[in-house]
User: Fold this.
Amino acid sequence: MTTISLEQEINPWEAQEARFDFAARKLNLEEGLWKLLRMPAREIIVHFPVAMDDGRIEIFTGFRVQHSIARGPGKGGVRYSPEVTLDEVRALASWMTWKCAVVNIPFGGAKGGVICDPKKMSQSELERVTRRYTSEIIDFIGPEKDVLAPDMNTNDQTMAWIMDTYSMHMGHTVTSVVTGKPLNIGGSRGRMEATGRGVQVICDESMRYLEMPIDGCRVIIQGFGNVGSNAALLLMERGYKIIGIAEKDGGLLNPNGIEIHQLLEYKRRNNTILGFRNAEAVPSDELLVSECEILIPAATENVITSRNADQIKARIIVEGANGPTTAVADDILAEKRIFIMPDILANAGGVTASYFEWVQDRQGYFWKEAVVNEQMETILRDSFEDVIRYAEAHNVNNRIAAYMLAIDRVAITIRQRGIYA
Ligand code: GLU
Assistant:
């Protein structure tokens, strides 16, 4: 194994490339397609002004990267964070291509981001940033071009503003330009919980495959935002024991299981999980390497790295976040024979429900929640089987199997369509 610096290790674009190259080699992918899929098709960078509440004009930088539109319109979220970089958005865009291909939905992959700190901004500042960002990239997005969605620090309200801005420019309401909208303006039932529900389905499938009992299975979850909290709730209701929750500012441990309804209510009131009485306060780093059957990183990138991978004690890792494990950590975890359910499968419930939202918007006919959940679960279970089949047939780990499956599907489409020149 070549040695690389920590800085390289945690660069998400390099993490993506390492897995892509490995999987492409295993697939014997022809050189032309390899070179094509290695790079994003389009990268948009915008610098735009926004009038702040105090009258100052601030300049923000935003990105939208469309990695591939071979299988359908670009698809992917928009994140707001002071740490957003082009390399991160590129990586996230390519992960969307692979994710949509793993679950076999007719989308390519895209991602957006704005460098800003939503915690320090008012609602009206956030609205103005969102509307101006949308208008800056408006020529490149749309129901048939590139469909946006929520990601870190964005939500259904952000999507409503994007939808409205786009619609104002078009002169009529266009709901299907974004997914993850509020229900009464074209959102889908079940979309909000879908990523967490998908994580739960993948936990169930892993337990079944490894012949482990669900009842009492100990789970530690890092991140208690949309993905982590919904996964925690659904898993608890299924009989798993959520013994640990780790957040940025600290963690909680209770070997008898944390009551998630209570914790959700506590966080809603206090805006933090710290101080919750029915669990012991434990540093988050410690929770990541504590005894459990399933560890679910559900927050952000680079949580499992060369610095802590060898101490992980979980039997299974289910990646609710995008890119939580570095490529170097993958090798260490493989040696420890930890069963990993990679992000591009484990968190694909969200984009699968987004696909249903896009379909419903275009049909103008809205499904019952049970239908959304059922169809999403079927897709995830089938995709789990597909990934396991690839892993067994090619003798590779689940992550590489998922990449191979995805690259294969995208490559087949490009070969069929041919290269336009
Ligand atoms: N941001 C989510 C993801 O990373 C959802 C994307 C979508 O629904 O388009 O999968």
